[in-house]
Write a structure and sequence with these properties.
It contains 14 helices and 24 strands. With 438 residues, it is an alpha+beta fold. The strands form seven sheets. The chain has a five-stranded parallel beta sheet with strand order 3-2-1-4-5, sandwiched between helices. The protein has a five-stranded antiparallel beta sheet with strand order 12-15-18-23-20. β21 and β22 form a beta hairpin. 49% of the residues are buried. Bound molecules: adenosine monophosphate (AMP) and glycine. Adenosine monophosphate binds next to β8, β9 and β17.
Length: 438
Amino acid sequence: MCPDDGRRDMAKVLLIGSGGREHALGWKLSQSEQVTEVHYAPGNGGTAGGKGRNIPIDGSKKENFDAIAAWIQKEEIGLTVVGPEAPLAEGIVDFLHEKGIHDVFGPIQAAARLEEDKFFSFDIMQELGIPQAEGIKCHNINEAITAIKEQSSKDGVVIKARGLTGGKGVKVCDSAQEAIDFLEEHKSRFGHEILISERMFGQEFSVFGICDGEDVLTLPVAFQDHKPVFDGDKGPNTGGMGAYGPAPIAPPEVIEEVHRRVMEPIVKAFAQRGTPYCGFLYAGMMMTETGPRVIEFNVRFGDPECQPAMMLLEDDLYDLLKKATAGTLKGHALRCRDGHACCVVLASKGYPGAVTKGLKIQGIEEADALDGVKVFHAGTCLESTELLTSGGRVLGVTSTGEGDFRSVQQQAYKAVACIDTEGGFHFRRDIGAKAHTL
Ligand code: AMP
Ligand code: GLY
């Protein structure tokens, strides 16, 4: 330690990923006085500028892990944060540890199985008595068909592929027959290993924690995502069309229950197994008639929940994540500002199907200039000075304020109205509508 040398506490941060979540994490990290630069590997059209710098390495791909390690060493990066699940499942954290790089925030491969492997997460919840849907693990289609007949009720049944499928491995069915027909038609998508689950009902909400291997600090605000592409939760599932918080379905006592019955037991179990969990922990929850139950775990922050969450988080994120990598979070708590935040995703027309890329985007500056508004980029790129679309989810237009939720929601839509592209964006007009029903 060298208390007289202020530079010792200054650091460069490296963020792996290129989505709206990474832009929001980097935006929040760059507010820390201790952070001099935030490098994005590779980032997007909105992440460079200010403290932000895009580097030409896609750190989410396994073939680039060596290049990432070399960058961390050359640039003397003080903290690396892994945004998406794919590199975590591929073992990027273990790889960096083996290279002697330990200031890395994200779970090791053995802990990342919690998201990657639905059999593993089902078993661990069963073992710990964490409330979840009933389920049967199947190893071939015939077993799955028998399980569907057994597990389905008049309310239907859910089919889940065991591994990561980029959000396409879950099908909620209204009847056993629909499930059997669907499975036979999409055999290759689901593979041989399938979890057949009870269908639960209720509003969904997302709870997030920061884990240091022994302890978890749970965010005192829960968020609600909007996965289906159209208003009224219609149409195919997407990565998420918008999110807001605090979600009134999960008041503080519910979050406390999720912390005690879900988040803490998971982190303690990984510590006991000798595979400590350091990283964000995301519990996808459903408020059922029998109380909150887990739908799934993710081993990263939610996208788009991260955008409103970063606007509400009061603490210095760099300080928290640094403490997490050092295993010293115990005794701390996460604090959120009073008020609300709301993120509306602007997507390319056709999303979640095929989309046209390379369209010019206008109006971001006007939107950003509105009170309490920040536009986070996802599928954007810069070509010389021109900002273009480059993916399905393009922007996360996010607002925050201390007023009532309705005014924050209206401000987000006012910002949305400033932004345009050739042919227009697709977005949902009902982000946060569930907040008004409770
Ligand atoms: P997952 O990828 O496991 O989060 O599932 C995607 C979506 O499918 C969830 O956000 C829920 O809307 C739905 N889902 C998954 N499991 C269940 C379940 N057991 N009962 C009802 N809906 C479910
Ligand atoms: N908000 C959904 C997800 O991040 O998976």
